[in-house]
């Protein structure tokens, strides 16, 4: 059943995810919008709902004739550890309101707050810019995005990497490493094993395996896994998304052995080659927090950071969620997690991480 949120001059309604026709209309709108991303597609919301057991919502703005003029995907996040929030979009780096004009965008933003109140959720987090409003706190200093055009050839991409980092990539090309791309059981198992070890070493709980499987199943050919192996053993792997000519390496990492073989460097360079062969024109390195190793790594590859603009609204008297790993209060917990045996971390991690959003 579609639940209406009435606002003057623009019709806003909540989409029923069992309505296949509506989902197709939304995806067509996202694909055509210049600011659309994989995280605005209904495939993302459906994958998060299946993989993390969080509820997917989507608000759409329509004209009087029923033509879509805006989309706002939302994840209703409920966690005993991290609280409750309505997020656009959950487990994503983007997903804020897409709209044809400011009026439709403002109506969607206002409707998201009305939905939060109806659901009894104390805060809304929008991962994208919103129309200026005193009710919303703009956050533009927490994350930076790294993106640039791909070169016209493999050598052009190599030369675009600053000299010191380029030497590391060239060194990786001299090692006996095998690279494979796919979406099957072998690639999925290799990716999860590598990624789980990588995030444990960083002191972070791993996401559920079901989330990665759901994303691959929902996106079809618009998602794949690139694996780097040394003597048959996976040492680096990345799950990437493809949208509008852009490749986004989204969940990637390497084992401890990856450093010896410069496998992460090889992985991202091979992904550039693979993406160009697929017809991509841009490489989106995702977001990172200033002051982190990932932020420095991406700068070393010659990517310039650009601030991401997010927005948040919190109910009177409510406390905002705090999941920033740079917060000093998490220091001891991160150090303890890094020492956990990998099987234990992999057993406990998904129960924690599916509430992070």
Descriptive overview:
With 357 residues, the chain is α+β, with helices and mostly antiparallel strands. The protein folds into two domains: 4-142 and 309-321, Aminopeptidase (3-Layer(aba) Sandwich), CATH 3.40.630.30; 145-307, Aminopeptidase (3-Layer(aba) Sandwich), CATH 3.40.630. Helix content is 38%, strand content 28%. It contains twelve helices and 16 strands. The strands form two sheets. Strands 1, 2, 3, 4, 5, 6, 7, 8 and 16 form a nine-stranded mixed β-sheet that branches. A seven-stranded mixed β-sheet has the order 10-11-12-13-14-9-15, sandwiched between helices. β12 and β13 form a beta hairpin. The chain is globular. The two termini are 26 Å apart. The model has no long low-confidence stretch (mean pLDDT 92).
